[in-house]
Amino acid sequence: MMNEQKDFLWSDQCEPHKLRTKQLINKYPEIRKLIGRNPYTFLVILFCVVLQTTLAFLLKDASWWLVFVIAYFVGAFADHTLFVCVHECSHNLVFKKRSLNVFASLVANLPLVFASSVSFKKYHLKHHAFQGIEALDADMPGKREANLVGNSTIKKALWLLFYPLAQASRLGRLNKEVKLFDKEMALNWLIQLVFVFSIVVFCGWKGFFFLLASFFFSVGLHPLGARWVQEHFLTDGLQETKSYYGPLNVPNLNVGLHNEHHDFPSVPWNHLPALHKIAGEYYDGLASHKSYTKLLVKFLFDRNLSVFSRMARDNKGKSVEKEKLVQAPE
Question: pTM of this prediction?
């Protein structure tokens, strides 16, 4: 009988992107031309916000089954695109001024129901700097969370379905490093409360639950939810960051090119394919995924995969001469 994994894999080397970034920029200085901003991302934001708001209004008198079907097959994709747009804003990749990026992220947050755009920026930048360090990386599951889920198919499905709640539960451990509440976060919550109240008034509870279901599907038990497994789970050997090269990079706004993004977080989404083309000799040899659906099925039913299938580190990214990879004792 297979022994259930009881801890993460541990590395005493820094996260894997710093060295490759230096190598690539030295070998391909033309990559610097890809660094910049894409203000047209704001048009994507406006389109998705209008789409979701319109659908919420049109579904106010629809059957409940139709509300959830449309949420799964349409709303989830629009919301996932908005979530990626919030991600772009967190890196200041939409506008030059920080305040305009904050504004764009607040607009993108509207159909996502919960106020999350301001807090996401606070914690996401730590993820890039301290990948795999539990005390600093909110993308890194905690040991208690991983033990709770285990390798049970049902528990992994529930974990994905309620993934936003799992992420929110990790924020408390970063309180010493990040100020949890400030004026921007208060504004974020105020805007969301007004928007959600307006949705209930003008679109009814079915309109509200359409937005709520779209949100949970967009980052949960859905092929798009496999993105969380794709990015940093050890699904193939010890490579801790993997890219996705498939059709869902259209609604994903190329965020599936995750090695490329981590190597150059200042390159906007529309230039990531060009980055891959320039440095293909580095990226083509790395393990990657081509189907979110296959990855989702694999994660749910492969008992060798669990929330513990992550690389952890506790040295705050300081590199050492030799990398040591060991599985912690059970």
Answer: 0.89
